[in-house]
Amino acid sequence: MHNKSSLLISLFIFITFSALNSYAQVAQDSTTEFKPKGNLWGYVFGDVDYKAKADTVGNNLGSPGRGGNQYSKLPENARMFQMRRVYLGYNYDLSAKFSAEILFAAEDDITQGSGNLVAPGDMLSDNKFAPYLKLANIRWKNIFKGSDLVFGQVATPAFPLLSESVWGYRSIERTVSDIRRTPSFDQGVTLQGHFDENANFGYNIMVGNGTGAKPSNYVFMWFYGDIWAKFMDKKLIIDLYQDYQKIDWTAIEDGKTGAFHHDRNMTKLFVAYTVPKFTIGVEAFMNTLMGDVQENSATKTYYRTTIATAVSAYARGRVYKDKLGFFARYDNFDPSHKIGDITGDKRIISYAPLTSQYDPTTKEQFITFGLDYTPFLNVHVMPNLWLNTYECALPASDYFLNSKGSDAKGTDAVIRLTVYYLFGKKEGVRF
Q: Which of 149, 153, 156, 264 has the alpha carbon at shortest distance from 214?
């Protein structure tokens, strides 16, 4: 993998210097005066929430409730007004060839703690809502025909260009892979573009830190790749995504600890059919996490590989003109495909997943549906139901169950009125 990463970085360097030469020649011939311009924009979404039902079954780490979403571990009958995302961005065209982007975000997507002691993710020490720098990058447009080079903190190839925009309801829930914390933004360099004049076939490749908004403290980088195609006058969209990250890579140091070879790679396929009146889409992934479960016997530590799969299907469309729409979605998440390798060794007395979003002992199913009322352009009022169910993946005879029981099921159910509004920027096709 080291040779591959060196090759990819060398490719970016070659492209950059080639474009520098070509751009210098174009600049000499340009006589059109360009006037720099910028645009301030933002959007907000939040809810009036009522948690009608709460999961109370502890996961294998012993905490009350399962899951890692904004409603996980909140108590039943919780009522709240909640701003789940606030964006403030600025886009600036420096020249005909260069543009810059900056975005500050405050997002309440991750709950921490247990019981009634639950704190949202983006909080200061005094529990006030806090923004952070989510995007800051510069784009070299048309570095060569049909392609842009973007450097800085950027949106990754995993979501924004197709799957998230076609789903169109980030204000209701993230995409199925975003829920599992595949980075939607990262610090790095990306090359994105299309192969043909009509932009029916394109690509997006990136090398990044894999740490989102945080400075990197890893030795290894995250590699992203995405290719897409649009057919039938761009009504049918097919998108194939692949990523890879080497996380830890240590040899055997003593007789008590096995070699710790820890990496992950995801393959994701997205297919959608979209017309102005309705859209249907399916997104599916398989994520292989090598060495992601740590097991302990009385004398030694082992690392096991897990495989997780997920399928997400959704539909959205119009009910009445551009004033009333609907949306519905179902996700099935199964991280338990190699559970037997983890629990089958009777020497093991304890184990723990290193990636909490991929605990192989718990399957999840997610359902949401609702209406989208648009009283005014770029303002949406959406009554909806948010429902996530959990099921133990361990067999009834497994000794790891202890007192949990193989039929341990639970549900987080939230009734919401979601409000979303956008300013300073044209909204994409909604229905």
A: 153
**366 belongs to a structural domain:** yes
Which residues form the domain of 315? 2-26+42-423
Residue 419 CB partners (closer than 8 Å, separation 6+): 45, 46, 47, 380, 381, 382
pTM, full prediction: 0.85
Nearest to 103 by CA among 119, 116, 92: 92
Residue pLDDT, tens place only, 174-195: 999 999 989 899 999 999 999 9
Query: Is residue 417 in some structural domain?
Result: yes
Per residue in 253-308, pLDDT (tens digit) is 555 566 788 899 999 999 999 998 999 999 999 999 999 998 888 888 888 899 99
Yes or no: say if 296 and 348 are a contact pair by the CB < 8 Å rule. yes
Burial of 373 (0-12, 13-18, 19+ CB in 10 A): middle
Cα separation, 47 vs 383, whole angstroms: 9
**3-state secondary structure at position 115:** coil
DSSP 129: B
The Cα–Cα gap between 158 and 240 comes to: 10
Q: Is the dihedral of CA 230, 138, 169, 225 positive or negative?
A: positive
364: domain CATH number is 2.40.160.10
The residue to which tokens 């003109």 are assigned = 321
Chain centroid to CA 239: 15
